[in-house]
Amino acid sequence: MSAIESVLHEQRTFPPPESMAAAAAVSGMSGYQALVAEAHRDYEGFWARLARENLTWHTPFAKVLDESNAPFYTWFADGELNASYNCLDRHVEAGHGERTAIIFEADDGKVTHVSYADLLQRVGRFANALRKLGIERGDRVVIYMPMSIEGVVAMQACARIGATHSVVFGGFSSKSLNERLVDIGACALITADEQMRGGRALPLKSIADEALAMGGCEAVTDVIVYRRTGGKVDWHPGRDRWMHEIAETQASDCMPEWVSAEHPLFILYTSGSTGKPKGVQHSTGGYLLWAAQTMKWTFDWKPSDVFWCTADIGWVTGHSYITYGPLAIGATQVVFEGVPTYPDAGRFWKMIADHRVSVFYTAPTAIRSLIKAAESNAEVHPDRYDLSSLRILGTVGEPINPQAWMWYRKHVGGERCPVIDTWWQTETGGHMIAPLPGAIPAVPGSCTLPLPGILAAVVDETGQDVENGQGGILVIKRPWPAMARTIWDDPERFRTSYFPQELGGRLYLAGDGAVRDKDSAYFTIMGRIDDVLNVSGHRLGTMEIESALVAHELVAEAAVVGRPDDTTGEAVVAFVMLKHACPVGDEAARIARELRDWVGKEIGPIAKPKEIRFGDNLPKTRSGKIMRRLLRSIAKGEAVSQDTSTLENPGILEQLSTLAQ
Ligand code: WTA
Hints:
Elements: H1 2-8, H2 18-23, H3 28-41, H4 43-54, E1 65-66, E2 74-75, E3 80-81, H5 83-96, E4 100-105, E5 111-115, H6 116-132, E6 140-144, H7 149-161, E7 164-167, H8 174-184, E8 188-192, E9 194-197, E10 200-203, H9 205-213, E11 222-226, E12 240-242, H10 243-248, E13 259-260, E14 266-270, E15 278-282, H11 285-297, E16 306-309, H12 316-328, E17 332-336, H13 347-355, E18 359-362, H14 364-376, E19 392-396, H15 402-412, E20 419-422, E21 456-459, E22 471-476, E23 486-487, H16 491-498, E24 508-516, E25 523-528, E26 532-535, E27 538-541, H17 542-550, E28 555-565, E29 569-578, H18 585-602, E30 611-614, H19 628-636, H20 652-657
Parallel strand pairs: 4-17, 6-7, 6-8, 8-11, 11-12, 16-17, 16-18, 18-19, 19-20, 29-30
Antiparallel strand pairs: 1-2, 3-13, 4-5, 9-10, 14-15, 15-23, 21-22, 22-24, 24-25, 26-27, 28-29
Helix pairs in contact: 3-4, 5-6, 5-7, 5-12, 6-7, 8-9, 11-12, 14-15
The structure holds 5'-O-[(S)-ethoxy(hydroxy)phosphoryl]adenosine.
């Protein structure tokens, strides 16, 4: 709670710079309030206006919102459009074909510019190649690729032919990839030979081969491979094809598939409270509308801007603020293959200077690690670089501590750029709560106020509003166009996870705790209230990691909790009981290493526990429930002050308190 208290006592406010407010899409508090009032007066009319303004419709919609099958809401359902047409063709048709769409910088520093006209041709060729393979509207295609122009092309090409893509982050293991291929019933997989990160080539194709060999995904008849490094790969004739070979023989003109606004554009897996990741399904129309509109509102995009979102296309931020949002509005953006610390921790700052980036969007975990690097090596301090092109800074993924916020503002933003802390989720499609740069005074550590049309609130366990100043559960009170439509193949889980009966069945439950300031009504996010950890901005379910641990032959039982971490926000701590006696000394260290690698293989390196503690048992209630709150205290190194009278085996606490690795 101490982080929240420090924000609550935060007195510093940073009003928008006057010149920015004057020229902003949403200008001043009055501009913001006018939009809020418009949505309040005529909710459907407000969204219909934005949908008409932001998107080009092949068939205009007549119906706006349909609530008859709540919580499976639909928006603009009788309207037809194509996401790729909206991201590419219409800009070229409007005479902006020569405008740079993507400035791609490779891991080794090589820069490639791609214009809108080029990108349209590349997408057209590849979309035709996918069609030739028999891939059609509604088919699911999994994309397991590095950050690349080709990754964006693959996503856009799927959208063009009405295939639903599901991008799996390149850091996930073969097991995780297999689970997703099976769950979604994919018919094709697009991958690369290898990916380059930090000067090293990492295999992707061989992991994909392993995933396919695990079985259950026999429906995958085509594996399309982008040749990134030319490294050696195994080849399965008849199944495997090079991306460039199948695309180069195709025409660049490709008729877009016109789909209903409700057609699933993509499914993206994310962690929830149970062991199985959820396939969050998004629509075409409502989703794209918000990706475009938030580019204009939250980032106040201007045609002269160079936008850079450092996220990976494997996460929702890379969907909304690389592949769809920036292209939908015809922006010029930087796409980066590598990591912020290679060849040194000045890479981000150098790239901002080289490409004259004006709007920069990154994660608190990156900021914190770059602060550390800058403090120990003056050479990579942002003060050393010409960052004068910047005008707006954004953050996303986890709460940003006021100290990091202030550093970001001062050393990266030169005290002139607003810092926009954007709260949102995979399920929300785009930004939900954020200080609009020309309108809302920012406060370090607070994401401030909901975007116009978004009815965010803080409620208690029964769904009643709590007073400002009191903590509670963050909810959204009305459906919005960009919200997830369902969980793939599990609508019941969608209903129970996001619209629980306890809250009345109509409120969208975000899974975060929040508090609003007594005076300003600003929101501060207090972190997850369910069994989800946030490690470096990545969502990990504790249950997923636990099931991975118990799948190891030595492990009898495991419990995973988070503890605060200076760099990664939260760190994974695992409490493990082995089938044989509790290990000590070197043996404990060896088994801990083995289990860590095991989790890396089962899920991916991001899920590896930072600490593993062994015990003869886990603290349980008499009814056999693991007492996680005790484990959380132990993980933090706190003295256990909670009531332990219901504990079956109190002696265990002491053993678990000693770090066994
Ligand atoms: C957390 C990422 C505080 C939150 C877009 C949310 C944040 C989860 C912020 C979603 C923020 C994201 N301040 N917390 N600005 N942004 N979160 O689905 O716990 O990967 O529920 O989407 O990240 O993570 P997801």
